[in-house]
Amino acid sequence: MATFHLVAPSGYCIQQEAAERGVARLREAGHQVHNTGVIGRREQRFAGTDAQRLADLNQLAELSENPTIVLAVRGGYGVSRLLESIDYPALSDRQRRNPLLICGHSDFTAFQLALLAREGVITFSGPMLAGNFGAPELDPFTIEHFWKALTSPRFTLEWRSDAPACRTSGTVWGGNLAMLISLVGTPWLPQIDDGILVVEDINEHPFRVERMLLQLHHAGVLARQRAIVLGSFSAAAPNDYDNGYDLAQVCATLRERTGLPIVDGLAFGHEPCTVTLPLGAHGELIHDGKRATLSLNGHPCLK
Q: Which GO terms of the molecular function aspect are on file (predicted)?
């Protein structure tokens, strides 16, 4: 059984019942859950003051040597306020001694990418307490892939995609696209060469997705990648005004502009059904035009 340590560096958890349900589920499964006091903490729209939320992250360096899963309560907004005050060297020292398995997505992506950029620390883009573990019904796909990622030194994701065939390998990184874009031009955007960029988002219309990816293209980020994998883009349906312009058209435009392989269809993001990805791990992407696989290794895992 595992030990979970909760952090809430972003928005106030408006889904209090869901968060408590997530804690109960984890405990019923035999796991320990620590630091639950952060669930009800609130300061305006945030899960506590900036100082409190910053302490959530910096105090991770002082956790015991026991293997621990650090789980974000929810996303929202707030990590961007903290980036310049995070003690990255201390967290890196803790990770070298006995890595914490740090998991979350959405706004939490900013913290994860900053750790990767500053110290090369690998974290997991995956489920969070309220939205996933506390969902009305626990998604078996999500839970299976969560434990697979956190316990397997090597594992493979499989999905179907009609994208053109490709085969490549590199460093897997990315996460929430909007948060990644917010780091462009800052010290907290990883400078990844030969990468496999995996991105997802929610409430972003196809033209906004295209605009953000084009920003990465114009900034020279995509020129250093070997492939792009698109996860879930929830609530991104085109409307009548689009007249056929959709995410498939976005992919076609980006392939033409960048020359990069773009493989869509991965269950990854803000949907109840999501895989867990180690950001900073090595990946091998193989796609035959119908079936895609992404094999990962080099990440920390539970012993």
A: muramoyltetrapeptide carboxypeptidase activity; serine-type peptidase activity
Q: Which domain holds residue 177?
A: 154-297
| Alpha-carbon radius of gyration of the chain | 18
Q: Is 200 a catalytic residue?
A: yes
The domain boundary residue, chosen from 138, 163, 188: 138
Q: How many domains is the chain partitioned into structurally?
A: 2
Read off the pLDDT of residues 119-175 as tens digits, 9 standing for 90 and up: 999 999 999 999 999 999 999 999 999 999 999 999 999 999 999 999 999 999 999
Calculate the alpha carbon distances from 190 to 126, 150, 206, 297 in Å.
Answer: 19, 22, 25, 19
Catalytic, out of 5, 105, 106, 232: 106
Active site includes 270?
A: yes
- pLDDT tens readout for residues 178-199: 999 999 999 999 999 999 999 9
Choose, from 10, 105, 145, 200, the residue flagged as catalytic: 200
- Which listed residue (5, 105, 270, 299) is catalytic? 270
Exposure class string for 115-125: b at 16+ Cβ within 10 A, else e: bbbbeebbbbb
Q: Are residues 125 and 169 in the same domain?
A: no
